[in-house]
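Tokens as discussed.
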């Protein structure tokens, strides 16, 4: 089945996301260096930053921070915020103003205990009063698109009624789109498949466009579930984009081939441009488990980087692995990541 809906731009407050394919926010990955690599290949309509603490943003310079800065080639960038209350929120929005015209996203989905203990992620989803107060600060202060990312809520008998109530709240307070990851709040990625069959009925319960997220690996996955996705306004890819940053380009050009050693070296160069060696080493260690899945003996690359003691050693050991022209996997699987 042809994916016609993936060719219709998603337009929010005059900002066009074309095609309506998005790279998901991923902790430790969707920083400026990775966004630069992703934009080299293109094919997506927008990329989300990793979740940024609103309190952290207050102390960052949007023009040179590797978490906030953007390059002219980056395309549409949406800044995802971890917000727990309204304190310092206007200051954070002021900091983002020079770069966040394409959109701000509120994370209401993160199930991590540390995030919930702060009152963010799915904890904020559970608190409609606090959520309303936060949106009422953001909406008049930010003229561009305002999005939220959610899950299905808690697995209680009334979960659907609660979700409908949140839909009404988001509509009434001026949110422009919803990214829906159709798992319950604390369901793990590996044990519980995303319930994409729910998209059609849930999309009918809100006026807002829904961007589908969760387990989506590329065009073949989307084609197999085209009926479920037909009612959505866009699709979001996460872990596969970390493993194969060319996944969006390949969506439009299935015959695209890449030199993985060159991609690796280019990414290392981008990390060096934006981070100190110590921080670049940390970011490379986060990226490697995903990229290593492309190789038959990817565990060797993983061990080489994770077992290194510093940035230079990691680059050297990874270079030795790649110089041997290691065999590639035709299809890759992301279980365990």
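Sequence:
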């Amino acid at each position: 089945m042809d994916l016609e809906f993936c060719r219709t731009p998603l337009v929010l407050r005059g900002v066009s996301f074309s095609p309506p394919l998005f790279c998901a926010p991923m902790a430790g990955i969707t920083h400026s260096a990775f966004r630069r690599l992703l934009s080299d290949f293109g094919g997506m309509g927008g990329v989300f930053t990793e979740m940024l603490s609103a309190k952290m943003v207050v102390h960052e310079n949007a023009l040179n921070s590797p978490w906030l800065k953007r390059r002219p080639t980056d395309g549409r960038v949406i800044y995802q915020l971890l917000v727990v209350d309204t304190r310092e929120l206007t200051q954070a929005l002021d900091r983002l103003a020079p770069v966040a015209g394409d959109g701000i996203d509120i994370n209401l989905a993160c199930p991590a205990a540390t995030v919930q203990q702060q009152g963010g992620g799915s904890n904020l989803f559970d608190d409609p009063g606090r959520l309303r107060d936060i949106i009422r600060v953001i909406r008049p202060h930010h003229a561009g698109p305002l999005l939220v990312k959610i899950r299905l809520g808690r697995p209680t008998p009334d979960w659907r009624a609660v979700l409908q109530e949140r839909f009404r709240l988001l509509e009434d307070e001026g949110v422009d789109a919803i990214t829906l990851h159709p798992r319950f709040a604390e369901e793990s990625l590996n044990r519980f498949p995303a319930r994409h069959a729910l998209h059609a009925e849930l999309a009918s319960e809100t006026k807002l466009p829904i961007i589908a997220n969760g387990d989506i690996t590329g065009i073949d996955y989307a084609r197999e579930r085209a009926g479920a996705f037909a009612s959505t306004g866009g699709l979001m890819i996460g872990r596969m984009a970390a493993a194969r940053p060319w996944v969006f380009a390949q969506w439009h050009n299935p015959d695209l081939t890449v030199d993985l050693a060159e991609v690796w070296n280019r990414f290392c160069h981008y990390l060096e441009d934006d981070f100190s060696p110590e921080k670049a080493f940390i970011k490379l260690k986060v990226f490697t488990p995903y990229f290593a899945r492309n190789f038959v003996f990817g565990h060797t690359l993983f061990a080489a980087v994770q077992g290194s003691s510093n940035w230079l050693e990691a680059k050297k050991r990874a270079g030795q692995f790649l110089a041997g022209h290691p065999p590639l996997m035709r299809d890759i699987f992301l279980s365990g990541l």
